[in-house]
Model the fold of this input.
Amino acid sequence: MSVEMFTPSPIQVTQNAVNKVKTLVAEEGNPRLKLRIFITGGGCSGFQYGFSFDEDSTEDDTLVERDGATFIVDPMSFQYLNGAEVDYQEGLEGSRFVIRNPNAATTCGCGQSFSI
Done:
């Protein structure tokens, strides 16, 4: 009888987000690229989400790996993203990465900024 170990991730990543990151990395032709998710001050609600590709991570970054895609979160941003879900959506508003964040007290209409 085999026992399957499951370690819950502090940040959940949907299959849509994984697929999009893998597609973008393949288009760039650089398998070292990872999607960095970060929080900055600003936006209409006080904080806003940011996304960028990065080849490198630091030892205090949190790495979330799923199905060949890697997501990076720095320590300052992690405190606001712990328990959040990263998704990728295509719709009438366009295509974008979306964060569903249980730590956000309020979220603006576009979903790209929040307050604690």
Summary: Strands lie at 12-13, 34-41, 47-54, 62-66, 69-73, 85-91, 94-100, 106-107, 113-115. The longest helix spans residues 15-28. The radius of gyration is 15 Å.
